[in-house]
Specification:
The protein is 72% helix and 0% strand. It is mainly alpha-helical and 190 residues long. It folds into two domains: 49 residues, Orthogonal Bundle (Arc Repressor Mutant, subunit A), CATH 1.10.10; 125 residues, Tetracycline Repressor, domain 2 (Orthogonal Bundle), CATH 1.10.357. Helix 1 crosses helix 2. The termini are far apart. The model has no long low-confidence stretch (mean pLDDT 89).
C-alpha cells in the first residue's frame, strides 16, 4: 500500500509564494539572478525554508520547470483542441509543436541549464512524454511511416540549446522556427 502525504496548507501556500517570486526574479534578471536569499525575501519566507524545501538553487530551478511542465502536459493530454484531444492528428501535431516552442522559449534559460546539466539530461521524463505523444499522432496520420524516428526529427529543433543558439546568436525569430516545423508537418500530410 502506498501512502500519499498531503502537503500542509501553509506549506502549499509557501511553495506557491516561493515559486511565484522565483518566476518574477528569473523573468527580470534571468537564471543568473536567481539567488536563494533574494527569492526568500521576495516570497516573505526564511532562507532556511527554501533550502529545506528545494535543497539548492538548481532544485528551485527544477521546481519552476516542473510547474510549467505539468501545465503543458495537461494541456496536450486533456485540454481543448487543437492542442488537446478532438482535433485531426496533423492539426494536433502543429499545435503541439507550436506550444512546445512557446513553452521552451518561455523558460529558455531554465531549460538550457537543465538540458545541459549532463550529457543526456534532455532525454527522459518530459522528452519521453513528448515523443510518445508525437509517435501516437504520427501513427494516426501516417500508419506506414517510422513514427518513432519522425517524432525525434520533429523534436530536435526544439532543444533549448539549439533554440538559444538560433534565437540569440543567429537572430532567427520564433515564427521562422515554427513555420519550418509547420512545413515539416505538411510534408508528413502529403
Amino acid at each position: 500500500m502506498v501512502i500519499v502525504r498531503r502537503e500542509r496548507s501553509d506549506a502549499a501556500r509557501n511553495r506557491a509564494k516561493i515559486l511565484s517570486a522565483a518566476e518574477r526574479i528569473v523573468a527580470a534578471h534571468g537564471v543568473e539572478g536567481l539567488s536563494m536569499a533574494e527569492v526568500a525575501a521576495a516570497a516573505g519566507v526564511g532562507v532556511g525554508t527554501l533550502y529545506r524545501r528545494f535543497g539548492d538553487r538548481s532544485g528551485l530551478a527544477y521546481a519552476l520547470i516542473d510547474r510549467r511542465e505539468r501545465e503543458f502536459q495537461a494541456a496536450f493530454l486533456e485540454g481543448p483542441p487543437p492542442l488537446g484531444p478532438g482535433a485531426e492528428p496533423a492539426e494536433r501535431v502543429r499545435a503541439f509543436l507550436r506550444a512546445l516552442a512557446d513553452r521552451t522559449v518561455e523558460q529558455l534559460d531554465l531549460l538550457l541549464m537543465a538540458e545541459t546539466a549532463s550529457p543526456l539530461a534532455r532525454f527522459g521524463g518530459a522528452y519521453d512524454a513528448y515523443h510518445g505523444h508525437l509517435v501516437m499522432l504520427i501513427g494516426r496520420l501516417r500508419p506506414e511511416a517510422d513514427a518513432y524516428g519522425l517524432a525525434d526529427a520533429l523534436l530536435a529543433p526544439l532543444s533549448a540549446e539549439l533554440l538559444a543558439h538560433r534565437l540569440r546568436r543567429c537572430g532567427v525569430g520564433g515564427e521562422r522556427i515554427t513555420s519550418a516545423l509547420d512545413e515539416l508537418v505538411s510534408g508528413l500530410v502529403r
